Amino acid sequence: MPAKKGKTARFQVDQVGDKEDEDVPDANSGTIKGDTVHITQNGKSLRHYLTREVLPTENYYRNLTSLGRHSFRGKLRPTMEQLREEEVKMLSGSPAKDSENPCQKVESGNIVKLGWINGVYMPCLLNIWGVMLFLRLTWVMGQCGIVQGLLVMTLCNVVTTITAISMSAITTNGQIKGGGVYYMISRALGPEFGGAIGLMFTLANSIAVSMYIVGFAESLLDCLQEFVPGWSGIVDHDLNFRLNDVRIIGSATLVLILILGIVGMKWVTRVQKLLLLLLICSQIDFFVGSFLPKTADIYAKGFTGWSLETAKDNLAPKYSDGQSFFSVFAVFFPAVTGIVAGANMSGDLKNPSSAIPKGTLGAIASTYVTYILYGLVVSFVYVPSSSGNIPEYLMWTNTSIPEEMKTLPSYLDCSEDTRGEDRCQYGTLNDQQTMAVISYTGYLIYGGCFAATLSSAICSLVGAPRVLQALARDKLYPKIEFFGAGVGVNDDPVRSFIVVFFISLACILVGDLNIISSLLSNFFVAVYAMVNFSVFHASITKSPGWRPSFKFYSPWISLFGMFLCLFSMFAMDWITALITFVITAVLYLYIYYRKPEANWGSSAQAQVFVNALKGVQSLTDTPDHVKNYRPKVLVMTGNPADRPLLVDFANLITKKLSLLICGHVVMVGILRESLAI
């Protein structure tokens, strides 16, 4: 009976020494037989066999230049001998060099890495609870009414929720490095889209810094006007025109925030925690104050307490001149754009793939509930317009005075026929500090407004330079790599900070919050559209590299989100939307024709393969026709350099419009000997 054959493996190591060599035990759960090393610690499935294959290193497979002296940082692929030496070092316990960058210098110091709460949830929360919560939420409810006001907030959150789901799918598809949304889009769609959106996104975040600081300056001036007797402004003594005061306060605030950002993430996190605590206290103060009675001057400004009559009056929209549903949407939309605050910090997170989905979606849910709740509170306790005149309020609320005996107009009558040029200055339509009037103390609301605006400005100012730094390191634009340098153990982008500072300073000098909001909205919505398109495109091309662990997404919902973003852009301001499209297209075409060295395995590359395969299949199924005949020539030239005349002759036939294949047969080993016999 023949002996039973033992199991064989596809890869195995031949025994080099004699069979009589004894097994030498090893401390690392391995055995050494003769000259052959068998590692059994992590090789249960291979049992007595061992492959010589090393785990793939990403840098070796980026592009074809990794094969020679132009390889990544001058490093060639390892030889078999080098692998064996590395294996022996591993068994002996000696440390090995970093495979990514053996020449990298490790700086001493503490590297700050953040979790999903401190790194994503808290920055998103602070950024969404920004200037719009205290300065524009009451105005939105006054303009749109309850129904359309809640619809505006819901529509904004639908856009951000779909985008956050798409962003979660991208972040769980692979390693996420510094650069945030730019890194996601560039690695998903390629350098053309990534470079265009990265530059636009840096500009959008820089503008966002100025928007939040302008809101802070406006609220600070309102606070000084209310609580400082005899306040007449810094340089603008007309309280209705204070643009220069906004510029002065905004510029000084921007300098202080820049210093904080350069100091480092540890101090930024500490400051953000204090601001979040102050922000939560101010919201509690506002909610409690809506249930408490007020003085006559507060009631004259439009406060009614909880009243169904007030809610009925606020049910329908009351758009002022030049305002509409989508113009209000354009002003409010920046309030929810803080969902990218955590993604911008991807390089400073411990685990971006886990932190970004949890923190972003949690922040969206939390802030959406609070915005809806506070919008309803405002609609139930405050009227749209009021004169603030105390004698008018006392006369029209005194039931003992007959209506025909009331000589003063009603404090709620703000029509042009009654007031003329003396317009009402209070109510949700006219007073930006309505939430301070409703609150219990008033001081905490101002403190919360300061905390919201400053925290949002800090998040944007810290995030924008990191996006620019990642863009600069990819070298998609000429000379931009100057801004890719980092300082310190945390690789802080100081040069990028300076660029963002000057962009924000220029926008602060504009000083008009509504103008900045409209421009900012289009930039952010364009970025959101590209995030959604990235997920759809990667899914529809069935790229082998598209395997996100986040399963709660749909490519068709992402496509719907993209069209919703495009619709929102044109509905808000079609002129600004066209300008955004033109800028993006110009940047895209520039990078496309520049062809930078960037091979990231994007879905655009997968689409090229899909298109080529479909084209070949279609060509195979199409019958030949005399009008479309193209000669396809196979020329057995051997080495083409040895027979250039033959190659030139074949080229005259194909005219560079058809298929020309040069064939070269290489005979080696046994085949050559058999032919010789």
What's the number of helices? Answer: 23
Q: Which regions have little confidence, pLDDT < 50, spanning 5+ residues?
A: 3-50, 63-75, 93-108
The coarse overall form would be: elongated
**SSE succession:** EEEHHHHHHHHHHHHHHHHHHHHHEHEH
**Proportion of residues in β-strands:** under 5%
**How would you classify the helix and strand content by structural class?**
mainly alpha
Query: Radius of gyration in whole Å, from Cα?
Result: 34 Å
Q: Any overview of this molecule?
A:
This protein has 677 residues and is mainly α. It is built from 23 helices and 5 strands. The strands form 2 sheets. The protein has a 3-stranded antiparallel β-sheet with strand order 1-2-3, with no helix packed on it. A two-stranded parallel ribbon has the order 4-5. The longest helix is centred in the N-terminal third of the chain and has 37 residues.
Briefly characterize the structure.
The chain has 677 residues and is mostly helical. Helix content is 55%, strand content 3%.
